[in-house]
Amino acid sequence: MPRYLRNSRYNRIFLLIGIGALIFISFQLLSFKVLNSSAQKRAQNAINEFEDNDDDEVDDDSDLDEPSQFDKKMQKEQKAPEHLNLDPVVDVRGVNPDDIDLYRPNNEQMFTCLQSKKKIPFSEVNDDYCDCDDNTDEPGTSACDGKFYCKKQIPHQALIVLPSNRVNDGICDCCDGSDEWKKTPPPNGVIPSNRAKLSVKYAPCDDLCDKLIQTNKEDEKIQKMGKRLQLPYIKAAKHLPQKNDYGPDGIFYKLSLTCFNYKTKEYEYQVCPFQKITQDHFPGTAFSLGKVSTWSSRKNGRYLLRMEGGDTHLCPDGLGRMSIITFLCGLNDRVISLQEDEKCVYGIKFSTPAAC
Questions:
Q1: Pair 198, 341: CB distance under 8 Å
Q2: How far apart are CA 31 and CA 286, in angstroms?
């Protein structure tokens, strides 16, 4: 091969190698620049994040900084109303649970009467003296004409509320005894005439709320079971012309077809609802305890039947003996108890599915 052709070939090879080397070096420089720029951005982001976190930390001298206009606005909006000083929480005796926030002292330890808006020292609330014109400063004493709410309430039932004159009268009205906080019984066991004699419990009172709640749960089960047993009572009065004389839809009519016996140590009783009630003491004379029936109550599950017109012998003022039958929800028909509540007045508790 001629020398000049050989040299031309070598020159082309060297040129291609040079061009390739130049491209490789340019690519490396460009990559290095891109990587360097990315690293700088990551470093800058890290620095910014560190500074942000550092700003969030509380500086020991931050309380000296002037708050911004936004901070001032927020502080103003979040400031509690004057009458709602939420610290400390105050437990005021006798207050309606829904109104407890109204019985907090303001920042000056003053109480605002609920209706008259008069301000009195909070220390005068429940001090046994009427300071407010509307009597709202004495929810837990008998000083004023108001209402007392028992501290413990029964779930899913209406609130238990008493007239203030029953507070500390020696008789337990609240299931937790919170109305008798002085724990002093009435003088000589005197029972006010407007109280049911059988249900009276004297102070000091026991907390019976948990027991009452458990009893209510058991009563609910009996109510459901008793409802399922009412069909025979409804059928018995199906063609009765005057059903209302025997309760709703005549449901108690079936009881009027039967007499129920009840015995005590001294007497034997025969209870025939709507017909007659007798007391027998062998070998003595049998007495009628009532033979004319009228309803005292038959609403909201409360069924009281009065049996009047009984014998008058030895009864005060010549009045005839009388019985009051309280029908209670039960799984069978029977007399639960019978006793003389007062002279010639008899109380009878009667269990029946008809009352469920």
A1: yes
A2: 122
8 A C-beta contact, residue 291 and residue 310: yes
The stretch 214-228 carries a mean pLDDT of 90
State the Cα–Cα distance between residues 142 and 99, nearest whole angstrom.
19
What confidence score (pLDDT) does residue 93 get? 95
Q: How far is the C-alpha of 181 from the C-alpha of 211, rounded, in Å? A: 20
Amino acid present at 316: P
Q: Are 57 and 65 in contact (CB under 8 A)?
A: no
What is the longest distance spanned by two Cα atoms in the chain? 165
The tokens describing 148, both together, are 């007392």
* Cα–Cα–Cα angle for 146, 148, 153, rounded to 5 degrees: 150
What is the radius of gyration, based on Cα positions, of the chain? Answer: 44
Which residues in the chain belong to E strands, given as ranges? 110-112, 119-121, 147-149, 161-163, 260-263, 268-272, 276-280, 287-290, 292-299, 302-308, 322-329, 334-342, 345-352
* Percent share of the chain, pLDDT over 70: 72
67: left (phi over 0), alpha (psi -120 to 50) or beta: beta
The C-alpha atoms of residue 131 and residue 16 are separated, in whole angstroms, by 111
